[in-house]
Amino acid sequence: EYSRPNRVPFNSQGSNPVRVSFVNVNDQSGNGDRLCFNVGRELYFYIYKGVRKAADLSKPIDKRIYKGTQPTCHDFNHLTATAESVSLLVGFSAGQVQLIDPIKKETSKLFNEERLIDKSRVTCVKWVPGSESLFLVAHSSGNMYLYNVEHTCGTTAPHYQLLKQGESFTVHTCKSKSTRNPLLKWTVGEGALNEFAFSPDGKFLACVSQDGFLRVFNFDSVELHGTMKSYFGGLLCVCWSPDGKYIVTGGEDDLVTVWSFVDCRVIARGHGHKSWVSVVAFDPYTTSVEESDPMEFSGSDEDFQDLHFGRDRANSTQSRLSKRNSTDSRPVSVTYRFGSVGQDTQLCLWDLTEDILFPHQPLSRARTHTNVMNATSPPAGSGGTNPGSNGNSITTPGNSVPPPLPRSNSLPHSAVSNAGSKSSVMDGAIASGVSKFATLSLHDRKERHHEKDHKRNHSMGHISSKSSDKLNLVTKTKTDPAKTLGTPLCPRMEDVPLLEPLICKKIAHERLTVLIFLEDCIVTACQEGFICTWARPGKVGLLSSQNQANSPSGTVV
């Protein structure tokens, strides 16, 4: 457990979320991991010992305390990191961005120092993938700015020139005689831009906003690729699958939503949290793409070497998935694992399996009650019989499949009792056995949702009435949620599969703000300022017995 040196829980009222950033400085000792986290006005930089050893909190490499502003987010440049020097960007509540080197203990630059570019809180800051000098900053104003560390910000407010305009977004370039920051200004959606994430190949940018929209852009060409609307309220967090094919969001509707990048549509929602979802993240070490030929097992060490950047793995996963989609190849089994943490102090783990991912198989629209069944069962294949599959159907206990759900934008699909197939009787029996349970839970859930939405609508109105007049002017032009519900932008609850979490566990006393999957552990943090390392099964034995006695390392599925 990492925290402030005194280990006293931080009184988090009114503070910005605790965030954690990792970097590996590739030093020769084999212990190159470094950890940065912010708590209130403070920023800490430690050697990270993971599951191997308990943290020594008395010796931070660097510690900073800020006055008049608080750190809100940070990001290391993985390309330039060495044992002697690292580049860390830190965003602040008053709008500035600082570039610091916690190893040399230097502060090299301050961007937006006079707040001439943007006066609102920095919500997300990230280095542009593959670049040593470009970085992107999002603000609660709804604007994003592209900076170059080599350029200055100028002494006057920037003048802008329109570069591109599209549905709910505009992009401006900075008009000046000499090149200055910001290089670009993006205005996206309405209200705060809460988080953005680059795709594993660095070509696309997913943004989530307080207006409830996910917007995915081609970063270089500044083109809008696709959009999605939350079921209710703002979207707070976003992440990409390791192969870049799926995006998961979380937000104020207490749901996690899975969106297909290729099809530009919602393919599943997950219901397990009892409050807002603050972080979503894929687990690249558990996500598996396996071909039916046992010689080509995908869990090899080579696959996992470059997973931090998702590049190598993404390519191998993509090639396998393209094989999966070609007609003459052997079948491929695919399971994506992702996690989420929320203000309800719970960690949820989710599996995205075949029946959800490939909906042309007739029963794929079913709800998967993985938690009710045996969670250790192998990844499920299709639970139904595809009319074109010569009657070869697989039924596994892991994912039980009720009859297909009606869907307005779906492909035509066959009924459960496909008379031409040998195994359809068995499928039908299993399906009808579960359907009672599934429809019952669906019905209850719908009623609960209406009740919740009703209450929340009041509270959201109450919040917005207190906010600035400028925001109120903007919100009047909002898309009417009633118009998007039931469209491909925001399908109804009964129109897409509803995932149940594999595990849902309360792991903190305060709201959770961090979830990071590492090779031998999972890292979480809560608003009290405690950063916890949870050993993966079988990895906890790496701790010495003395440290194990002192360490809070838990074990997670």
UniProtKB/TrEMBL annotation:
InterPro entries reported for this sequence: WD40/YVTN_repeat-like_dom_sf, WD40_repeat_dom_sf, WD40_rpt, WD_repeat_creC_regulators
GO cellular component labels: cytoplasm; nucleus
Compartments, record wording: Cytoplasm; Nucleus
Ranges of the WD repeats in the UniProt entry: 228-260
Polar residues composition-biased segments: 407-423
Basic residues bias (residue ranges): 446-459
UniProt keyword Acetylation, yes or no: yes
Keyword Acetylation among record annotations: yes
Keywords noted in UniProt: Acetylation, Cytoplasm, Nucleus, Phosphoprotein, Repeat, WD repeat
Extent of Low complexity compositional bias: 387-396
Location (main, coarse): cytoplasm
Region (Disordered): 372-423, 445-465
Subunit structure: Interacts with USP12; promotes translocation of USP12/WDR20 to the plasma membrane. Component of the USP12/WDR20/WDR48 deubiquitinating complex. Interacts with USP46; contributes to the cytoplasmic localization of the USP46/WDR20 complex. Component of the USP12/DMWD/WDR48 deubiquitinating complex.
Protein name (record): WD repeat-containing protein 20
